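Slide 14.
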Amino acid sequence: MEAQAVKPGPPDAPSRPVGSATRTAPRRLLADRAARWLVTGGGLAIIGSILAILIFILVEVWPMIGGARVTPGAEVAVPGLGGAVVVSDEYRSHVAVLTPDGRIRAIRIADGTVVVERSLIDEERPFGLRAVGAPPGQQLLTATTTDGRVLAVPIGWEISFSGQDRVMTPVFHETISFEVVSSEPDPGTGAYAVRVDDDGAGTAVAQLSDGSIAVARRSVETNLFTEESEETWERFEGTSPLKLSALVMDQDQRLLYGGAAGGDLVWWTLEGGEPGEPHLVETGGAGVTTLGLLIGDRSLVVGREDGALEIWFIVRQRDESLVLERIREFPPHDSAIATISPSLRDKGFLALDDAGGMGLYYSTSRRTLWTGESPVQEAVSVFYTPKADGAAIAGRDRVAFLDIRNPHPEVSFTSLFGRVWYEGYPEPDHVWQSSSATDDFEPKLSLTPLLVGTLKGTVYSLILAIPLGVLGAMYTSQFMHPGFKRYVKPTVEIMAALPSVVLGFLAGLWLAPRVETMFPALMLMLVFLPLSVVAAGLLWRALPRAFRGRFRMGAETLPYMVVVALVMWACLEAGPVFERLAFGGYFPDWLLDVTGLRYDQRNAVVVGLAMGFAVIPIIFSIAEDAFSNVPRNLLAGSLALGANRWQTVTRVILPTASPGIFSAIMIGFGRAVGETMIVLMATGNTPVMDWNPFNGFRTLSANIAVEIPEAPHGGTLYRMLFLAALMLFVLTFVLNTLAELVRQRLRRRYSQL
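Slide 15: predicted structure.
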């Protein structure tokens, strides 16, 4: 074997054993470990914080998912109740019952004591009772008599305090007797409806034996000085095409609805109490057993012999005619619906069938919140308490309560994301309208317009930001002289530090009015700016190379800026002439007349300009880094093989930098999705569902900012805002995850270049 020559080291080099390693100082080891622990702890803290935020949002959203919780409550024995109807005070401390023998009793639930009792039967004018009832949604007990009258007893509940104890005193007001039959007693069909106002005025309607309907109306006028009241009675008659089994009247006593044993419906308008022409609706369903009106008196609940439950309301057609239409149906009961009791707080209602089955429903969300059995035997009457937190049920010999906890009935998948047919709307639609000035308001909580608005604002801003950001980064990185780049990149990055509230303020108050007046000029710029830039580039290349060589790369931007400024000035000057020639003088009027689209001053175009200005620095900075980080040997190799600069950038540099460019676009997308102040101040915050660039919109983030001051803690709106935040969280997480997957795939694809 040949001996290998060993190169001697320097004479003064210290000798050390072969294989020994330099010993690391303990201070450096400790610093390394501390840095590693700090970085690891910081990363875990960030992940933990994000998970904690997610868990908190989920905890706030979760209560909306469940249904109602209904449990048995207090009950009291009341002998001889068979067939009685019941109403309750708002605190569920007393009930008032009317039995078929005409006895009215107010009973204290705590001990079953009869507090007040009286009879409807007048000893001086003896008569019998045909039917007793408690009209839905009223504190009223009613009865029809054998001599052709309708009796109504308003029930009052007076509250006083003895020390810290609340004392409830039931009050039976004066019986109001409506003379429905004009002469001889008429047996009628048994269908009747009554409404009584707070001042004692009211209307009673009943169907007579010949099929006509009779209306008795009482008016009360009170002298403000003497406080004396004078009553006036009127009686009207109208026709009916059906023999009715149920009648119900709205609170304003202007609309009357009837249902027949054959299943059809009919409705009338009452002008001053006088019924108009009947409007027949052939339904093809089973016989109608009971009717009810939900709060607001627009939605009619129909109960049928086969247990079906339906919601109907009057819809205005395109020819301005009114039609009663079936809007939605609920799962049927096993037997005929006996009675319906609407909520006085929302669009919910309770239904009781002949077999004692009960159900709690909500109209708008089309939810069946609870089904179960009545807590008493032979239940014939149910009353939904005024606070919507319980129900009183009258049976054969006792009255029982149900405790109801139903915090978020408005929420369902359909009401959040599907088309819902709301009261007063001509067709189903996506609507966000969380509050109103009236108590009978129907919350409209569709998140779809907010999702569309979020994507709309994002798309319009990225239309401006992506081309300018990516192409500007490509030019700065690959074509601009480093001496100029040293000033351009920091300047653009400083733009990202501008507060979004300032941009939104300027966009809403300064930019929006100018865009409205100069929009035709913007259209001219959209055409002539690219053409002028291309023409300036061709002109620059046409100059002698010797002349162009006197300037550093990137110096051509100065004449380009001059050209752009001159073209913009020319477009602004020519804008009024172009608007007059092309649009007849005023673009918004032309837009409305020709296309039917309304021009809103704060619209998607303004938001696209303002939010694009905020997103450009992010896309530019990350994309420029991606271009600059491409290995220089790829650039040199491409140029050495004969490719020109443009070919090298577009076919070598751009594909290699594409993962970073894609990340820049996705980060800009996330920035635009989460933007709040610009869209809050530069749009009309109208939750619309179209992509028209000339109207406003509302985003999820702006909706949170607008609604949170008005959202009561723990209420449905409060939790809906957390759901909107959860959707933003999930949307950005999914987009970032997909972006990372695409970036990794692009990176693997172009890593071999």
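Speaker note: The radius of gyration is 39 Å.
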